[in-house]
Specification:
Layout lengths: L16 E6 L6 H5 L11 E3 L5 E7 L2 E11 L2 E7 L3 H6 L1 H4 L14 H9 L11 H10 L5 H15 L1 E2 L9 E2 L3 H6 L2 H6 L4 H12 L1 H6 L5 H9 L6 H11 L13 H10 L5 H7 L7 H11 L20
Antiparallel strand pairs: 1-5, 2-3, 3-4, 4-5, 6-7
Keywords: DNA damage, DNA repair
Protein name: DNA-3-methyladenine glycosylase II
InterPro entries: Alkylbase_DNA_Glycosylase/TA, DNA_glycosylase, HhH-GPD_domain
Length: about 325
Amino acid sequence: MDADRPFDVSGASAVGDSVTVESERPLDVALTLAPHGRGPRDPTQRRTPDGAVWRTSRQPGGPVTYRVTQPGRHTARVQAWGPGAADVLARARDLVGADDDASTFAPRHPLLVEAHRRHPHLRIGSTGRVFEALVPAVLEQRVHTIAAHRSWAWLVRRYGSPAPGPAPRDLLVPPEPRTWRTIPSWAYHRAGVDPSRSRTLVRCAEVADSLERAATAEYDEFVRRVTSLPGVGVWTAAHTAQRALGAADALAIGDYNIPDIVGWTLEGRAMADAEMVEYLDHLRPHRHRAVWLLMVSGAAYKPKRGPRTPLVDHTWH
């Protein structure tokens, strides 16, 4: 736990409601939940020294703090506090990827075969919360991930709300959609978010309820609905679906790095988007799973050429 303030139990039980998830395949809750965090200073997700992963969310029932631990190789425990606790506990299996089915994943490349063998615990979990995943994805459009994480943290710290129940120090619940709609332009400016992305966030917040209904759609239909919003493209939709839907095939087309990583790692050369899509076609419906396996296995490779892309300061706009 946080040494400074491991718990704040005012008005809440330190135990909370909980469910235990059992899985036939091995689990790794820290690995499964890692993609939902937005950098080491994300105010909405924290991994504490005891190995627990703490997260906050806005659920249909209201804000919630939840803690995910792993008592055993095949077991996960989810504890939750706040009005949205029942919603989170009902999705506990989805959160830890207990029912993520990789039985049809049949890679051919030796590197992927070995990565899959060494990481049987790799799961793709889902939160079921579309707007929650969409906002950070929009912030990550066309900018360095580091800069996007800074913007996310700044906005959540200014406009988020305290996490219910016991929680690590400074954990916050992200703003609700109506708050994102009313954040003034100067605040987005201070957060380093350019007018194009801030307008997209406002549009998304205006239809947040209908976006949540898209969580039950098939992937292609989900992409169609989400990309109907001005400023949301297939890259943003894929990153949202990976987290909200647990979409194992949500390949991030248009990514600055992924085509080159796939090309250099598996074929020893650069690839463009179209070639990558064709190259990975035999891995449907597991293309995102394949890319993620390359990342977590340490096999991913892209040669460094020239200086690193500079961070862009959008606060001058």
